[in-house]
Every structure is written in C-alpha cells, then in structure tokens.
Amino acid sequence: MHSPLQTIAFIDLADSTAAYQAMGSEEVAGVISKVTQWIGRVCEAHDGRILKFLGDGVMAEFGNSVDAVTAAVFLQQQHTKRIRRWPEPLHMGLKIGLASGAVVRMGNDAYGDPVNFASRLSDMSGSNAIWATESVINQLRTNRRHRISNRGEVLENIRYRSLGMIRIKGIVQPHPVFQIEWNDEIPTDLITIRGVLQEPELPDTEKVESHIELGWEGNNKVFVSSELPIQIGRVPDCHFVISDPRVSRKHSTIEWINGAFVLADQSTYGTWIRFTGKSASEVQLRRSQCILHSGGEMALGVPFSDASAPVLSFQVRAG
Question: Cα separation of 222 and 215, whole Å?
Fold first, then answer.
C-alpha cells in the first residue's frame, strides 16, 4: 500500500572493505555493528524509523525532510569527531543519500522512487557527504518559508548547494542533486541555487561556447564544449594524458550534457573531486558521474590524503 510522502535516508559506512583487509574481521565487524546501532538510535531520536540494517549501513524513513536532514547533519558532525580518535584503518566516513516522495509498503519494507534515489545518492556521494534530491530541498524551502517545523533554529542553519543535473545509475533522465553542507568551517553566506542548468537560447551568431581548462604538472589544455567528449587516462591516445601508474588506462571522460561539463569515472580505483573554496567533503566517484562547475581539483586513483596523488586541476568557463 502507498504511504504519505516520506523522506528516505540511506546511511552507509565508506571504505569498510579496506578496513577488513587492514585489520581483523572480528574487530572491524564489531565496530561496524556498534556504529550502525548508534546510527539507528540517532535516527529514532530525530523522529525517524529504521526500515532495515544493511550490513555496514542503515535505511531509515522520516515523516519530513527537516528531521531527515537534521539527523544526517548530526550524524556527520558527531561521527567525524569520533573517528579521529580511532586507528587509521577504521576511519570509515559516512555516505548519506536522502530522497522524498511516496513509498510503497510491503510488510516492514518500503519500495519506490525515494528508496531507489536515496540508495543511489548514498553510493555516489562519497565519504563524509550528504546528497539529496530536489524534493528534499523543496520541503526544506517550504518549511523555512512558512516556519512550520518545530526545529526552527536548526532549519535556519541548514545550508545546501546545487551540484547540477547528474545522471544517476539505473535512472534514464538526469536529475538535480544537492549537497547538504554540514561542516562548521563552511562560510554561512554560501550561495544556495536551484539545480537547473538551462541557458537561454541565443541566435547562433551570438552563442559563445563554454570551455574547460585542465592542468597537470605544467601541461595545460583547453577544451571547448563542441569538442567533447574527451578521455583522461594513462595511455597516449587519451586527449589528456597523465603518466602515473595509479591512473587507469582509460580513467575518466568529460562530456557536455544539458549545458554542463559532466565527469564520468571509468577507473579501477576511483576519482576524488574538491571544488575551489569549498572546505566541506570531497566528492568520491566510483563508476559514477559528477557535474564540474567553477573550478577545483581531482585526484586520480588515490585520495587527496595521499601526498603523492596525481592531482589534475580544472577550471570551467561558461559561454
């Protein structure tokens, strides 16, 4: 049966496989069990309900987006503080995906678009991130505008930014995705924008193409949108070559989709992205996609925490 609009949250522990490889299985399993149980208690304290435990993750539902986002922000802030005291292999960050809408009940389980979206966004967000659908953000805006939440102070402090239109695995059309900012170091004047990347149609004589500049160890190249897609990788026939053994032969592509530069990771070990001026979480891609906007850096094959990581800079210039 269909239920009223709900907000579904998928909260997963990142890098648990690496933790198992570095430490004993029994010890890691015990830590994961304690963390997921704690996640469940936090969700319930924010008026959420646990739908299921998923090994190294939790699926929960909330009656509104404000409670879900508040719980997600609390989880990220508290978990990040706790793991600083843990051994390095146990630094398993949280990946959180949120989506709102009508769900279908079957016993104690739930199905439907919000479940699928929340699960995919959790997978795509990377460690220490909260990604949400536009439906979640619209509820936040409505609650903030009409002050109908009993979490008024928390609601006023929630910040988010658009990641643009992103292709989500298993879903045909790209959808607007937002990142919830939870790090206290982020400036409070962060601009919030809608996730719609549409440009006014101009006569052909007035159009100016957008371009993206890539740079690595003194090698800089500029690609205009009409030249895309381009391939980044280790082999010589790539459009931009990075000769580092940790970079895959065909590591990633950049495409021009719906007026935006979209990076698609195709590598073995993944790609990490951080945007200029954004001190929150990094975006980790593993066979997934991300909008490249403004400027920043991407680490290929290993995260930014590895001082020797091959780091590629990018700068986007809109037409």
Answer: 9
Residue type, 191: I
186 with 161: CB under 8 angstroms? no
* 127 close to 150: Cβ distance less than 8 angstroms: no
Whether omega before 229 lies within 30 degrees of 0, making that bond cis, reads yes
Q: What domains are there in the chain, each with its CATH number?
A: 6-181 (3.30.70.1230), 204-317 (2.60.200.20)
Residue 190's CB is within 10 A of a number of other CB atoms, namely 13
Query: Considering only CA atoms, which of 28, 11, 25, 12 is closest in space to residue 88?
Result: 28
pTM of the model: 0.61
DSSP class of 171: -
297's tokens: 């850096």
> pLDDT tens, 115-174?
889 988 988 877 788 999 999 998 888 876 655 455 545 556 678 888 777 777 777 777
What does residue 178 show for φ and ψ, rounded to 5 degrees?
A: -125, 150
H or E stretch at 162: strand 159-166
Cα three-residue angle 115-117-120, rounded to 5 degrees = 105
d(CA 188, CA 157): 8
Cα distance between residue 141 and residue 122, in whole Å: 22
The pLDDT tens digits of the residues spanning 215-240 come to 999 899 999 998 899 999 999 999 99
